[in-house]
Design brief:
EC number: 3.4.21.89
Structural class: alpha+beta
CATH class of the largest domain: Mainly Beta
InterPro entries: LexA/Signal_pep-like_sf, Pept_S26A_signal_pept_1, Pept_S26A_signal_pept_1_CS, Pept_S26A_signal_pept_1_Lys-AS, Peptidase_S26
Main location: membrane
Distance between the termini: 85 Å
Strand content: 25-35%
Subcellular location: Membrane
CATH superfamily of the largest domain: Umud Fragment, subunit A
Mean pLDDT: 85
GO molecular function: kinase activity; signal peptidase activity
Oligomer: single chain
Radius of gyration: 29 Å
Length: 364
Amino acid sequence: MAKQLSKEERSKRRNRRTKNQNEKAKSWIREWLDALLFAAVAALIIRAFFFEAYRIPTPSMEKTLMTGDFLIVSKISYGPRTPMVLGVPFTNIYMQGLVLPWTRLPGFSEVERNDIVVFNYPIDIAPIAGKTNYIKRAVGIPGDTLSIDDKQLYVNSEEANPFPGIQQVYEVDVRNRIRLSASKVQAAGGTIYQSRNGNSGSYRINMTDEVAENISNWPEVTNVELFVLPDTFNEYDRRSFSFSSGFNNHHHMSPVVVPFEGQTVTLTADNYHIYEAIITRYEKNDVERNGGQFIINGEETNEYTIQQDYYFVMGDNRDDSEDSRFWGFVPQTHIVGKAGIIYFSWDKDRWLPRFDRLLNVIHD
């Protein structure tokens, strides 16, 4: 017969089993906590130095990038920046007034002309990493000479490359007593921006060149041409700040060289608006000005040597994008990374994913 355990021995066995179960439970919890901690640290490192997810909140890059696109942006393409501020991980909350010493690590390439780049909005009042993220096309790289004539961008005296996704506003005339259908225009890929003569007559439509060519063949349409502001029109009377004061409007821009590191510029009363933000805001110099006379860091001079490279960016939705035509150049320190892939896209109007855009590689 099996030996019967005493009450005391049975109690000891129960206590040992309970202790073993508790230790196993604690071990399991520790393993999960360790795994979660490792995953969080790995995600922070990946986010800080390799890749980060971004969402397109506005239509400024349509039709190349759509509102509701979710992107993976490569920080290693141009070189990641070491942390600039201390903040709450995975949020935009950071410690005010504390800016860390930082540097940019080596990347695979420099920003190339027409790359689609994410950058910190230069004129935000915040530490660089705390500024709003913007995404635009880098149409001008350091040393390029840019100009705009009747909305046509010229780079180094040559017409800039056209891209299929670029949208602009066109004027569309239709036959008498015919109303242009907004739904038909939308189905073709355009958006009626303005009806100039009530419900019929002339319309302004935001669309790509391809859509404009298509609409020009509609039987009710008599004429399609690019809408261009006259060069005598000064839209900046309505603006409190404009990089392009001295230019008439964003459909026309006199030639300007995109600043580059080591460039020495001669400052005048007529061109200081181009370089003011660079000298004072981005390169932290004290400037006193009296007309065409300048005192920089206590020294009277009319010359300044640029300390870093800059870029000129524009949205592909050319008539619905505030970009370098309005607020100036993007400093190299503000470059975050290169747009790589659309991993998801949400159409808020239809409340459906755009399945045809999933996992699309973003081509320059």
